[in-house]
Amino acid sequence: MRACVPLIVAMLCGLAWAGRKESCASRCNEKFDRDAACQCDRRCPRHGDCCEDYENLCIAEEDPKELKTFLELEEETEEAPASNLYSAPSSCQGRCHEAVDKHHPCHCDVRCQEFGNCCEDFETLCAHEGFSHSSDAITNEEIQSISEKIYKADTNKAQKADIVLNSQNRIPPSESGNQVDCCPEPLFTYVSEKLFSKPTYAAFINLLNNYQRETGHGEHFSAQQLAEQDAFLKEIMKTAVMEELYDFLHHQNRYSTEQEFVNDLKNMWFGLYSRGNEERDSSGFEHVFSGEIKKGKVTGFHNWIRFYLQEKEGLVDYYSHIYDGPWDSYPDVLAMQFNWDGYYKEVGSAFIGSSPEFEFALYSLCFIARPGKRCQVSLGGYPLAIQTYTWDKTTYGHGKKYIATAYVVSSTQ
């Protein structure tokens, strides 16, 4: 394993990386470039195709009053076809009461609040035309309250003695793109695998190898693999964590029955869509928890159990981290850099020591309550943000959206 290299070499590596147009170095506010792997224009946060160093390099150059953006865009989410990337209306200007058009990234009809796919200016522009603020709208205070309840209900989380973590070298966020291995030892020194015999852990682990990690190759599930999805949902619904989440959403009038809730979870997480050339090659679960490879880079892969198992097999090489959360017990949060069997992940944030149901519940809560937005939660008295993105090219049900990604927003502030 390589040790950290001198700064001049790291800078040269960073310049070489930028030359492949995977960085915003010297590209801030340039026009959309369909040949680039990621974008650096002002609209890239809205379309989810910013380069991973967009915030560090470009936000500082902008007047924050003029630029609305998400922080810590850690994912290279999929761009729309270049021919119509910015053509679909993303505003309700002149569209209030308009019928649903599946080609539009957001909607302005009377049911958009129910399905969580309204345009951001829906309330401002459409309230005077017969719409009112949804009585089912979930406030930030309610999200923080239910996230604390979920945090306290996670009795399956790891205890301090269950995990020995060796986080080693922390690097500045500006150096996360240099692909330099600054940590000679594995991230996990020890994990008590007795955790993995718990029903939710075992059901979760059964799912991890059901996917082809390269996008562009269609996923085809066997009857056994489909049964494993149902088994996982069945096991997590037995936990206090998911009971808290369902009770909350039920009282918010989002779901009338537990079965309706489970069916929706299965669709939003396990429903297949296409990130690459072939239909149905990806899902929210695969992307977030198992990880994918697209355009020669790691995307998703935000789960500590998956990381530990792959590191144990010699397939993951931990490089460094840029953020370590304030928690002195599990779950904690770590934002790290690593190599996954030949492919680099520049910033991969993950909960550490959490149960599968805990992560599934928090990500689902934020996707349902704040789809495509930053979701402010509270865990053990500490604030934390979770970012989700919706998959806008295809839908299920009556215009409901799949999960494109969900991850912890790691902040060094």
UniProtKB/TrEMBL annotation:
Catalysed reaction equations from the record: ribonucleotidyl-uridine-RNA = a 5'-end dephospho-uridine-RNA + a 3'-end 2',3'-cyclophospho-ribonucleotide-RNA
Residue ranges of every copy of the EndoU domain listed in the record: 139-412
Molecular function per GO: hydrolase activity; lyase activity; metal ion binding; polysaccharide binding; RNA binding; RNA endonuclease activity; scavenger receptor activity
Signal peptide: 1-18
EC number(s) on file: 4.6.1.-
The protein's enzyme class: lyase
InterPro entries for the chain: ENDOU, EndoU-like, EndoU_C, SMB_chordata, Somatomedin_B-like_dom_sf, Somatomedin_B_dom
Keywords: Disulfide bond, Endonuclease, Hydrolase, Lyase, Manganese, Metal-binding, Nuclease, Repeat, RNA-binding, Secreted, Signal
Entry-linked PROSITE patterns: ENDOU, SMB_1, SMB_2
Residue span, SMB domain: 20-63, 88-131
GO terms of biological process kind: immune response
Cofactor entry: Mn(2+)
GO CC entries: extracellular region
Superkingdom field: Eukaryota
Compartment(s) where it occurs, according to its Swiss-Prot or TrEMBL record: Secreted
Family according to the record: Belongs to the ENDOU family.
PANTHER family for the chain: PLACENTAL PROTEIN 11-RELATED, URIDYLATE-SPECIFIC ENDORIBONUCLEASE
Its job: Endoribonuclease that cleaves single-stranded RNAs at 5' of uridylates and releases a product with a 2',3'-cyclic phosphate at the 3'-end. The UU and GU sites are more efficiently cleaved than CU and AU sites. Targets mRNAs to regulate their expression.
Quaternary structure, from the entry: Monomer.
Protein name, per record: Uridylate-specific endoribonuclease
The gene coding this protein: ENDOU
